[in-house]
Every structure is written in C-alpha cells, then in structure tokens.
Amino acid sequence: MSSAVDPPSPPFYVFVCNVCGSDQVTREAWAAWDVATQAWILNTAFDFAYCHRCLGYAQLDRLLLTSPPPGLPSRAPAFPPAPG
Question: What pLDDT digit, counting tens, does each position of 29-44 carry?
Fold first, then answer.
C-alpha cells in the first residue's frame, strides 16, 4: 500500500527594481475581456517596467523566495487522503 504524497510546491518569486530593490514595480500589459468568466484576462505583458519608488523606468530582477510569502492561502490538497 502506498501513501499519498503531496506534490512539491512550486517556487515563489518576487520581482524587484534593479536600482533600488523595491518590489513596488509594475509592467505594461494588455488584458482581454472574457465573456464566459466575465473577467479581464491577462493577454500580453510587455517589457516596459516602472518602479513606483524610483518614479521611472526600471529593469526588473526576479528573485527566488526561500519561503512562501505571508498571507497566502494554505496549499492543502484538494482531495486529502482517506482516513485509515
């Protein structure tokens, strides 16, 4: 009998300004309206990034987080193993 093992969690990243290190950054993007879900769906993210701390164009660095960011919902399995 084998026991259920949760798959490994995907890595978490943060994008920061390469000048000041702030994570208060945004990118230009296009969103498309999805009639079925009644929501805007991200379609394309462009290269232009802006740092709201430096107040100007930014190049972004992607950093790997060593632990999940605070405030995330639990990643409990959708179908927990049956008891017994």
Answer: 999 999 999 999 999 9
